[in-house]
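Narrative of accomplishments. A recurring question from our advisory board has been how the design workflow behaves on a single, concrete structure rather than in aggregate. To address it, we present the structure tokens for one chain from the evaluation set, followed by the sequence designed for it. No filtering or post-editing was applied between the two.
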């Protein structure tokens, strides 16, 4: 069985695919990184999230909650509204993708979490973001959608 550093999980009709890649040219020594807490160089990863509505009802993303763990077990939680300033509304069969970044003080780590979505009737529900790995050996991201 092949293992992947990426994740693909569906909750209540919303499929979340997550993948990350290491950006070696973005590493900075501690003296150039603010708020580094003395943990050494900062390693930067780019990640792509693709949300697909595989269900039959429209949903809008409201909030995010990330749990980020570095290679030494330090845990950081990030909560906020939307994703990269957006609150995507995804109808049945539609998808929304975005790219963001995660700096770490170690050369590897993990990310996972939840999004809160809302249906047109006001019902809110959590959607899992499966654990994916921030590792230098991950295959490069495909940032463009394949042509149909």
């Amino acid at each position: 069985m092949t293992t992947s550093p990426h994740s693909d999980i569906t909750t209540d009709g919303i499929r979340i695919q997550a993948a990350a890649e290491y950006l070696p040219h973005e590493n900075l020594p501690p003296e150039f990184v603010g708020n580094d807490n003395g943990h050494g160089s900062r390693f930067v990863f780019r990640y792509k999230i693709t949300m697909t509505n595989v269900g039959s009802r429209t949903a809008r993303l409201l909030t995010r909650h990330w749990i980020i763990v570095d290679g030494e077990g330090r845990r950081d939680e990030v909560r906020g509204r939307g994703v990269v300033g957006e609150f995507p509304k995804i109808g049945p069969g539609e998808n929304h993708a975005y790219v963001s970044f995660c700096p770490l003080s170690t050369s590897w780590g993990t990310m996972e979490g939840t999004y809160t979505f809302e249906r047109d009737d006001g019902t809110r529900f959590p959607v899992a973001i499966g654990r994916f790995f921030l590792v230098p050996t991950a295959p490069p991201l495909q940032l463009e959608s394949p042509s149909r």
